[in-house]
Amino acid sequence: MTPEEFLSNYDPDITCSTAMDRYEYFRQFYDINRDDYALLTERLQAKSFKKGDTIVAPGQIQRELYFINEGVQISHFEGRSNMQVMAFTYPPYLCAVPGSFALQQPSKYSVTCLTHTKADSVTYEQLQEVFDKSPAIERLFRKMTEALLAGVIDRHRELHSMTIEERYRAFCRRSPHLLQSVPHKHIASYLGIDATNFSKLYNRVKI
Questions:
Q1: Which residue from 72, 116, 83, 70 is spatially nearest to 188, judged by alpha carbons?
Q2: Across the beta sheet with 64-70, what order do the strands follow?
Q3: What single-letter DSSP state applies at residue 15?
Q4: What tens digit of pLDDT does each residue of 70-124 get?
Q5: Residue 170, burial from CB neighbour count under 10 angstroms (0-12, 13-18, 19+)
Q6: Rounded to whole angstroms, how far apart are CA atoms 174 and 191?
Q7: What is the pTM assigned to this prediction?
Q8: Domains by residue range for the chain, with CATH
């Protein structure tokens, strides 16, 4: 099963709360063994955030990487007239500002909890220690980074080549549960669609 197939079968009502859930998710990218996996999980710390909490703020260096167990988060920045949405995260995804965490540089945008969120976290220093001890974990994260890059490029293509209805349908195929848990104005922003046109699509297009 590919990562895309795994995520397409994801049930938003089932949280990524067990070791097996996350282990199987990771193995979609690279087939790590349990000993290598344990090197990572033994360093994880449980974290909890309330709805509206900011996980990363502009100008802040993200020191911890979050493995989402429950909840929805939004990556965004303030545009000229309103908030611009870049991404949503939810189980079993990782939550981060990639450039801030990977390069240990100040973030240029925010990550905010749209709902109550539970996650496990690992610090940048701890993750580097795991990489030094386990080439398999380092390769896993490289594979996940490659998948993230491919997704960003594909999203860029969608924004510039698809009609608004095609973008809406593609989003509904990938993340239909977000239509029920995320304010539609945020999804409209993410898709680059005017809020009025998004409302028309939501009422007209049956998925």
A1: 83
A2: 45-49, 117-123, 64-70, 94-95
A3: -
A4: 999 999 998 777 899 999 999 989 999 999 999 999 999 999 999 999 999 999 9
A5: middle
A6: 13
A7: 0.85
A8: 3-134 (2.60.120.10)
